[in-house]
Write a structure and sequence with these properties.
Layout: H1 4-11, H2 19-45, H3 47-52, H4 55-82, H5 93-122, H6 147-162, H7 166-203
Main location: endoplasmic reticulum
Keywords: Endoplasmic reticulum, Lipid biosynthesis, Lipid metabolism, Membrane, Methyltransferase, Mitochondrion, Phospholipid biosynthesis, Phospholipid metabolism, S-adenosyl-L-methionine, Transferase, Transmembrane, Transmembrane helix
EC number: 2.1.1.17, 2.1.1.71
Length: about 200
């Protein structure tokens, strides 16, 4: 959970009316909204699968778009940090290397999640009817739930510390909140998809 006192403290150092900051917030909020809306629409209509000729091709296409949007989000995040002042008390080697270590751990979680799930498992393949045989419980899923999301959040946190950026820390909080909301919507829906799969298997 986000510390409210820390958030208030950060607001004192950040110009939230800055255009680059607003664009970064919108980019962060848009990404999970986009992929949830599109994936649920596909699950309901199978429209993308029909357009691209197969569920797998459609999933790969959506995955490519999500990757592109993530690159845009990271660019906006970086530009927002550049447009705002650094916190001088943090601009030291220990802060930089702490941030580097946090980003490295986040990167480990993101990459290991991708390797454990595969491309379609990572990019909402279950919404396209590409279901996994069983729930993945190996690392990093043995350590925490939704490691892709929290690994990504850790990367942004580390990046912010490396730049001694209060704006970056505030944007990282926005990332964490957006992912928390996404999990609340995705978790039950995905579980229902697999419940329907199990019902179909039992009825055969």
């Amino acid at each position: 959970q986000v510390d409210v006192a820390a958030m208030v403290w950060l607001f004192g150092y950040v110009d939230v009316t800055d255009t680059a900051f607003i664009v970064a917030v919108l980019s962060i909020a848009f990404n999970p909204l986009f992929w949830n809306v599109v994936a649920r629409w596909e699950h309901k209509t199978r429209a993308l699968s029909q357009v691209f000729g197969s569920p797998r091709a459609a999933c790969y296409c959506l995955g490519a778009v999500i990757l592109m949007l993530n690159c845009v989000r990271s660019h906006c995040f970086t530009e927002a940090m550049k447009s705002q002042p650094k916190l001088e008390g943090w601009d030291y080697h220990w802060t930089y290397y702490s941030g580097l270590a946090i980003s490295a751990v986040g990167t480990l979680f993101v990459i290991s999640s991708f390797l454990a799930l595969g491309f379609t498992g990572t990019f909402l393949g279950d919404y396209f009817g590409i279901l996994m045989e069983e729930k993945v419980t190996s690392f990093p899923f043995s350590v925490l739930d939704n490691p892709m999301y929290w690994g990504s959040t850790a990367i942004y946190l580390g990046w912010s510390l490396m730049h001694a950026s209060p704006a970056g820390l505030l944007l990282t909080a926005v990332v964490a909140i957006s992912y928390t909301i996404a999990v609340l919507y995705e978790g039950p829906f995905t579980e229902e998809i697999y419940r329907q799969k199990q019902k179909g298997v039992k009825s055969k």
